[in-house]
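Re: that backbone. Tokens:
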């Protein structure tokens, strides 16, 4: 950090700042200042001061709705989280073309080794709450792509974090395992009413030349089932994005 931040002469402040970073890393994107303070056992004034400092130093970022925080560029480089995305014009053009041909939301999610970030949300048919998808990997289609790609999903998203968002959310390990097995077998992910009761989505993976999962094209719609009628279009867009995101 810069000279105006924390130094080695302030061990207590450094420990508190690290505690804040640890809380945000474990709680996931969208964690609020109040939650950070409670989990880090810090008074509100100290919590807000440290959050503002860490945002200023790019270790944290404020969520677009200003209601919570997520790991920033500098912290992501240390933790393996998905970094703040910077998409090329060509990549954004591919997404615009797909949006122009469909009547569902078209979004791009990018992956780090153990986390995801909503990189480009459809401005006409936006995700209702991107932070939920980033925080609750077990519930969303994109999160399931990431978990299905892990040797052991429990190391990335422990069973204690299987939070029920709706009556349909898979909150038992064996339920989630069945969904992940299905995702791995067919090569794409879907969910119906597990993040929001009235929204379904599917996710088509974007992989690098080495086969690593780097992103996903996500289609969302207020339907009783995923928009699988547009799966081929999503896969085509994902294929076009592969050389642009590698």
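Recovered sequence:
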């Amino acid at each position: 950090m810069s000279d105006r931040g924390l130094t080695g002469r302030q061990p207590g402040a450094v420990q508190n700042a690290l505690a804040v970073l640890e809380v945000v890393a474990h709680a996931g994107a969208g964690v609020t200042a109040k939650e950070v303070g409670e989990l880090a056992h810090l008074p509100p004034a100290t919590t807000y001061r440290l959050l503002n400092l860490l945002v200023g130093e790019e270790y944290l970022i404020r969520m677009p709705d200003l209601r919570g925080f997520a790991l920033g560029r500098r912290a992501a480089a240390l933790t393996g989280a998905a970094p703040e995305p910077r998409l090329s014009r060509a990549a954004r053009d591919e997404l615009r073309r797909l949006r122009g041909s469909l009547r569902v939301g078209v979004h791009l999610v990018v992956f780090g080794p153990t986390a995801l970030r909503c990189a480009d949300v459809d401005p006409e048919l936006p995700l209702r709450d991107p932070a939920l998808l980033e925080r609750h990997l077990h519930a969303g289609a994109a999160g399931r792509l990431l978990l299905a790609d892990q040797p052991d999903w429990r190391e990335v998203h422990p069973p204690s974090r299987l939070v029920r968002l709706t009556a349909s959310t898979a909150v038992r390990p064996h339920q989630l395992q069945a969904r992940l097995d299905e995702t791995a077998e067919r090569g794409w992910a879907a969910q119906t009413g597990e993040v929001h009761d009235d929204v379904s989505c599917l996710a088509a993976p974007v992989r690098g030349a080495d086969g690593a999962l780097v992103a996903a094209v996500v289609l969302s719609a207020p339907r009783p089932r995923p928009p699988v009628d547009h799966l081929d279009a999503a896969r085509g867009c994902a294929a076009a994005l592969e050389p642009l995101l590698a």
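DSSP finds ten helices and seven strands in the chain. Confidence is low (pLDDT under 50) at residues 1-9.
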